[in-house]
Specification:
Helix content is 57%, strand content 7%. The protein has eight helices and two strands, in the order H-H-H-H-H-E-H-H-H-E. The protein has a two-stranded parallel ribbon. Helix 2 runs antiparallel to helix 3 and helix 3 runs antiparallel to helix 6. The protein is elongated, with a radius of gyration of 23 Å. The N and C termini lie far apart (68 Å).
Amino acid sequence: MLLHEQIEHLCESLKLNSVPTHWSSLAQQCIAQDKSYGEFLLSLLKCEQQQRDERTLHLFSRMAGFPTHKELSSFDFKFATGVPKQQIQELSALTFIERNENVVLLGPSGVGKTHLAIGLGLKAVQARKKTRFTTAAELMLQLSTAKRQNKLKQYLTSFAPIKKRSIFKFNSA
């Protein structure tokens, strides 16, 4: 068995998914830069960790069910004048998660509730928090379906216990 085949086999066994793809090019770079074996191994392990982190964030983002990608940094507070910028910045620190609080965004159409909810959700995903995005309409549909199927109690227990709720009302833009 050739060296690269042995490496691929061992990496598969050890679940080191990015090593077979990157070890050869990293080895060439380390040789060209006259780096030690330890530095090569460190580079390889960092590459593996980075790939795992990216896969985890992608998975968490997919599981959250965001309808689109909207960052908090792209929210236009000048346009949505009724949105309390200081409160949103406070929410972006995600301390409400540590306190087991939910955030409910209320307001008329067009003030940016969905943008803010997705932005906060993305912040939570980046902090490796499992997140679920839903609209009030979707939630009501899911609750009524669970009730019709006599599975309401099961559905409600699938959520973390609600201790506190923060409600933010936005004015028209």
